[in-house]
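Now for today's protein.

===
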Amino acid sequence: MIPMRDGVRLHTKILVPTDQSGPLPIIMKRTPYGIDHWQGNFTTYLKDLADDGYIFVFQDIRGRYRSEGTFVMQRPARAAGDTTAIDEGTDTYDTIEWLMHHVPGNNGRVGMLGISYDGWTTIMGAIEPHPALRAISPQASPADMWLGDDFHHNGAFRLSYGFEYAARMETTKP
């Protein structure tokens, strides 16, 4: 449970190779979809990176699954200079800061990746990035709400899909 600047703690799994021979970079994935089944990532999506040797960090975002706080779908970025507000970027920054000081064997470099909503959390972490955040790969981020997005098709809002997804995400933790 990594503490954020406002005291909310985020559920996080940190995986360090047992045969680590030197300092390693961190690959981080922040998600609203739950991290308890992280093992499946290493047989498919992250297998090549795992074979190359990285420290992996998986985190339930604010208000989802075993993280504390209130979930706000696609929480807007805080206003520039507003040091009292929180957003996905501040949670990313605070997480990286904690990792740099508490994970032995890291080399001071972090990369983030994610697809769909996880791509959105990745790009939000790059708005005001932590100095250790050196690489991002936001894939299929729901940033273009007009063309090709799940909620909109050529500008037409898909009410039933949008409502069902939003209701499911914002009315339950898992």
User: Anything to note?
Assistant: The chain is about 25% helix and 25% strand. The CA atoms of residues 36 and 96 lie 20 Å apart. Residues 146-174 form one domain. The two ends are 17 Å apart (CA to CA).
